[in-house]
Amino acid sequence: AQKVTQAQTEISVVEKEDVTLDCVYETRDTTYYLFWYKQPPSGELVFLIRRNSFDEQNEISGRYSWNFQKSTSSFNFTITASQVVDSAVYFCALKRGNAGNMLTFGGGTRLMVKP
Amino acid sequence: DAGITQSPRHKVTETGTPVTLRCHQTENHRYMYWYRQDPGHGLRLIHYSYGVKDTDKGEVSDGYSVSRSKTEDFLLTLESATSSQTSVYFCAISEGGGPSTDTQYFGPGTRLTVL
Description:
By secondary structure, chain A is mostly beta strands. Chain A is 0% helix and 54% strand. Chain A has no helices and 12 strands. Chain A has strands at 3-5, 10-14, 19-21, 24-26, 32-39, 46-52, 59-61, 64-69, 74-79, 88-96, 103-105, 109-114. In chain A, a hairpin with a 6-residue loop joins strand 10 and strand 11. Chain A is globular, with a radius of gyration of 14 Å. By secondary structure, chain B is an all-beta fold. Chain B has strands spanning 4-7, 10-13, 19-25, 31-38, 42-51, 54-57, 64-70, 73-78, 87-94, 105-106, 110-114. In chain B, strand 5 and strand 6 (54-57) form a beta hairpin. The mean pLDDT of chain B is 93. Chain A binds chain B through residues 4, 6, 31, 33, 35, 37, 43-45, 47, 50, 52, 91, 93, 95-98, 100-103, 105-108, and chain B through 31, 33, 35, 40-45, 48, 50, 56, 58-59, 88, 90, 94, 96, 99-100, 102-109.
């Protein structure tokens, strides 16, 4: 069975602080895909990134960066110099490589960035 | 933004009544999905479709049925709504071009309350 754990249910930071959101996953598949989605207060889900299991290169996109470590089954998300607009619920998700298209989501982390 | 609309956006109904939620896409994507979002559970897959009239069950399919008679529309039906089906329902779409490139994009959500 697949499982995604986001142990931090809520995080509160002050603007300009760096913050890391943790994501730990469980799967027996050798090929799988990891995702991060953002859900701002308006409620929609916004796709941020996907990472394939065979590509362990970390990725940076502006203030966002992702650290994928297969050895610890983690796919952590860091926001540098956080801003109030980063306040949202962030979801990590896992998809099996060769068995359907179902996404298994973590419970989400609510990030509050205070001015 | 992916062209996905959901209707209605909000609905209040009573226990035992039938309810149908509609998802409409303008992207001509092959795959469509229905998820429900509940606190602490992230999103969980209810049903998905991989083509017209081709559907399959997800993780939490009991009490739900779906239909897809056209590429652009995917309907979710609660035959007899129960209070446990109070939730936010999200539709998602993906091209289905292959697992290494396939990404799901989500609609705006429908908030359903069953009294």
